[in-house]
What does this fold into?
Amino acid sequence: MIFIDTSVLSLAFRRKAAPGPEPPLVQTFRRLVEDDQPVSIPGIVLQELLSGVRTENDFVRLLGIMEGFTVVQATRDHHIAAARISSACRQGGISTSTVDCLIAAMAVEAEAKLLTADEDFLPVTRLCNLHLCEA
It folds into this structure.
């Protein structure tokens, strides 16, 4: 199982400003989808993604695209695990967000790798069993 982070989805569905190849992480994401690999999206990622949309038309378009993906909802245990990750990060001198800790906790519990462009997850891997996908 692979969880897709907001950073990758934002890159994949952003309107192209200039011609040229897609970033490697977007290519990896598209290949996973085309190969029908088991990918899921944490519910908070869906919320983050849709929150960044500027127009109603874009919101509806993106929501339609996201209908094809399995969305994993956070449980009470995920929130508790996220708090533990947050505490470990703070004690380790690592600055992280509560949302990133929740995504990490959900990925760890599901034994899923996380596909992300957000380098903030890298130090978190040293403090919990989070595994990142290679582009």
About this structure: The chain has a mean pLDDT of 93. The chain has seven helices and five strands. Strands lie at 2-4, 39-42, 70-72, 113-115, 131-132. Residues 2-132 form a domain with the Rossmann fold fold (CATH 3.40.50.1010).
